[in-house]
């Protein structure tokens, strides 16, 4: 399986971005997908997940109420709408299968930088 992330960029505090991730080489609708991020000098952390069976979504406390994960199985894609961005959201964002211990090879990620 392969994933490709896109949509990152430089944005001011309070701004918005929409990240996209497209997967290939797998039956996309059979997997729970998630977004992860790795900030400068930090470990990679969970951001949000979208359960394939029932559409349930889960979020890290730090992004709850500001980020929304969604998916389009017909396009083999998962999205992350990020609103009210903060400088602490600055990170390299990745998508992959959830849970992380079952992840496929990691993509290049997409950089999000939030200026104060």
Please tell me about this protein's structure.
The model has no long low-confidence stretch (mean pLDDT 96). The strands form 2 sheets. The chain has a 6-stranded mixed beta sheet, with no helix packed on it. A 4-stranded antiparallel beta sheet has the order 1-3-8-7, with no helix packed on it. A hairpin with a 4-residue loop joins strand 7 (67-72) and strand 8 (77-82). By secondary structure, it is an all-beta fold. 0% of the residues lie in helices and 49% in strands. The protein has strands spanning 2-6, 9-12, 17-24, 33-38, 45-50, 57-59, 67-72, 77-82, 91-97, 110-115.
Strand tally, please? 10
Major sheet: order of its strands?
2-10-9-4-5-6
- Span from first to last CA? 37 Å
Helix proportion range: under 10%
